[in-house]
Amino acid sequence: MSEAVRIRAARPADAVPIAAIYNHGIEERIATFETRLRTPDEVAGWLEAGLRFPVLVAESAGEVAGFGRIG
Q: What's the pLDDT band for 2 if we cut at 50, 70, 90?
C-alpha cells in the first residue's frame, strides 16, 4: 500500500527540502527554465512572502516530497 500524501502550507523548516527539490529541477532541466541554484535562505524568503503568494508542500511519510508556489 502506498503512503498517503498530505498537502499543507510550507513552514520555515521546509526551506531545505524545498531548495533541494527546486535545485534538482534546475540541474536536470526538467521543471524550470531557471539556471541559478537557490539556497535554503532564498527559499525561506519565499515562505515569508507566503501571505501574498502561498507555498504548499506535498508530504509523504513525514517528508517533503514536492512543493508548489506562485511567483
A: low
